[in-house]
Write a structure and sequence with these properties.
This protein is an alpha/beta fold. The chain contains 14 helices and 15 strands. Strand 1 and strand 2 form a beta hairpin. The two termini are 29 Å apart.
Length: 459
């Protein structure tokens, strides 16, 4: 297949050119091709299919490193088919799936069932992040690693495995496992608020009648996110010193959905002061674009963990993005049923769909010259591929997988959740405007269709 008359993203620039795709791979790229070069390329085109891109922009497929595809016993919320179809239609060609499944993905048997359920049922490439087995069972951890997972995830607010993740001994054991097997630990950073403190916040809410999104922010405050980040870093330093680890043996830590400037500053300080630390972090689109002051038809549509923060944090993080200081974005796509979201605020689950709004809204910032295209491609495709060693992905290069999206600038239109492919037909971005159109998406050189053509990523 040939993609011709395209503007191809390459090394920070858009260049006129053509791409030859053969056997799932980018076989040849020619910039500003001459007639004889086009003829030679046509002769190499085995399937003889050609697509005129009409001078639209070709970008590398987006890699989303944080999503909840549900399925199993949560198929009413989302399935592998519906979730990955939503991702594919948004130009997201690779997704990392989180382990808070029912039952939780904390045993090798359950992880295998999880992976098997996804086979032949995914429209994009899917990598799996497992939970930790009970009692940090070493043999079970090795079995899970052998299944090819991307990494392990911990959630201190509600452990999947009855392990207390505020106990430094458990954290140090986990960091040593990461060191030994050189496997990433994905961390939801949040120190649980005490029962007494929660009661005090709730009483103040009753007296002062907070905006419920502001209440949610008070129940899961920024200082607790920063406290947990600091807790992890202190234990990391101790593990490195006590075990005299060399840089190749350092544990690999990834902080999920950093939402506050204080926790951001702690991570940046650690990266600057200690050379060689294997630390990364992601920011979500909603912590860049939304605050808890947002007006919604139903406040539950904006209920998420970490909560939407005050404007100062949103603006700070967005400024860091513009300056090129943020390296990774993850949507934290977390669909729930509309019935669940219509419950009273204290009973409604946290989370909302994120696949189908992320590229439209962040790329719209590029169209408005509020963000460089180079930064977008780095955070959305190149950096996640490099950070998590996804070979032959994230770049438009010869020999790389033909995971591509073609985008166009169009007259502004409103985002309408009723048009989503995900099962979760609601969004805090309802009515937001974008001038971005996802024109075509290719997974391994095949244009997306009703047939699921994604693959399971095995590390």
């Amino acid at each position: 297949m040939i993609l011709k008359n395209a503007k191809i993203y390459n090394d920070g620039l858009l260049r006129d050119g053509v791409i030859l795709i053969d056997k799932n791979i980018i076989k040849k790229i020619i910039y500003k091709p001459k007639k004889e070069e086009l003829k030679e390329l046509s002769e190499l085109n085995v399937d003889k299919k050609e697509i005129d891109c009409e001078h639209k922009i070709i970008l590398p497929g987006i890699i989303d490193i944080h999503a909840h595809l549900r399925d199993m016993e949560q198929s009413e919320k989302e399935t592998f088919l519906t979730g990955t179809n939503a991702a594919a239609n948004a130009g997201i060609t690779t997704v990392f799936d989180m382990p808070n499944t029912i039952p939780p993905a904390i045993t090798s048997d359950q992880v295998k069932k999880w992976m098997d359920k996804a086979k032949n049922n995914v429209h994009v490439n899917v990598g799996f992040i497992a939970g930790i087995p009970k009692a940090l069972d070493y043999n079970e951890i090795m079995k899970i690693i052998d299944l090819g997972v991307v990494g392990f995830k911990i959630y201190p607010l509600g452990s999947l495995n009855e392990v207390d993740w505020t106990d430094y001994l458990n954290i140090q054991k986990l960091l040593l496992i990461s060191s030994k097997f050189q496997i990433p630990i994905f961390i939801h950073p949040d120190w649980p608020l005490s029962i007494d403190k929660k009661e005090k916040v709730l009483q103040e809410y009753t007296l002062e009648n907070y905006n419920v999104l502001e209440l949610h922010n008070e129940l899961f405050p920024c200082q607790m996110e920063a406290r947990y980040v600091n807790f992890i870093l202190e234990n990391l330093y101790k593990i490195i010193a006590d075990n005299d680890l060399n840089k190749e043996e350092y544990p690999i830590i990834h902080f999920c959905h950093i939402s506050c400037k204080d926790s951001y500053a702690l991570i940046k300080k650690a990266q600057k002061q200690y050379s060689g630390l294997k630390i990364s972090f992601e920011i979500t689109p909603h912590h860049l674009l939304l605050s808890n002051k947002i007006t919604l038809s139903n406040k539950n549509f904006g209920k998420v963990l970490p909560p939407l923060r005050d404007d100062e944090h949103t603006q700070f993080l967005y400024n860091q993005l513009k300056e090129g200081n943020i390296e990774l974005i993850g949507t934290d796509h977390a669909p729930h049923t509309i019935k669940e979201k219509l419950k009273p605020f204290n009973k409604a689950p946290s989370g909302f769909p994120g696949f189908e709004t992320y590229p439209l809204l962040i790329l719209d910032k590029v169209c408005k010259y509020e963000l460089s295209l180079e930064i977008f491609v780095k955070i959305a495709s190149q950096n996640p591929a490099k950070q998590f060693n996804l070979k032959k992905k994230g770049f438009i290069k010869e020999g790389y997988d033909a995971d591509l999206l073609i985008v166009d600038k169009v007259p502004e239109y409103e985002i309408k959740s009723q048009n989503f492919k995900t099962k979760a037909k609601y969004s805090p971005y309802e009515g937001f405007k974008t001038s971005v159109q996802i024109w075509k998406v290719f997974i391994g050189g095949s244009e997306i269709s009703s047939e699921p053509k994604g693959k399971i990523l095995m590390k």
